[in-house]
Automatic annotation (TrEMBL):
Protein name: Ribosomal silencing factor RsfS
Source organism (scientific name): Gryllotalpicola reticulitermitis
Assembly with partners or alone: Interacts with ribosomal protein uL14 (rplN).
Family: Belongs to the Iojap/RsfS family.
Subcellular location: Cytoplasm
Lineage top rank: taxon: Bacteria
Keyword terms: Cytoplasm, Repressor, Translation regulation
Length: 126
């Protein structure tokens, strides 16, 4: 399977929102093969707890404004790893240290990367 067009559309909104709050190292993985419940994981790093919370707030606001309801939110209080579930898209916003520790890219290394474009940038994930 491959990520749906809807998941890719949500990915665009989430990536632009994360980038607007200085989200770093944005990586999107197509997890539709091994995970039947979602299509795409977006991984984002923030450089502080406040930055992680700001990124997650921006992503959630952008997707809610686009008509996509947040199905589940975890970890916002600590600001270390925030998980936002939007159905076809799950966004993981990590503090840089936690992202290295949990290394989801390594865990999901067999999943293809989903390219996306950001304003004022070439192509992310190339």
């Amino acid at each position: 399977m491959t990520a749906s067009a809807h998941a890719r559309e949500l990915l665009h909104f989430a990536a632009v929102a994360a980038d607007s709050k200085a989200g770093e190292d944005l990586v999107a993985l197509d997890v539709s093969g091994p995970l039947p419940l979602t299509d795409v994981f977006l991984l984002v790093s923030g450089n502080s707890e406040r930055n992680v919370i700001a990124i997650s707030d921006a992503v959630e606001d952008a997707l809610n404004d686009a008509g996509q309801k947040t199905l589940r939110r975890e970890g916002k209080e600590q600001g270390r790893w925030v998980l936002l579930d939007f159905g076809d898209l799950v966004v993981h916003v990590f503090h840089q240290e936690d992202r290295q520790y949990y290394s989801l890219e390594r865990l999901w290394r067999d999943c293809p990367v989903v390219p996306f474009e950001l304003p004022n940038a070439a192509v992310a994930n190339s």
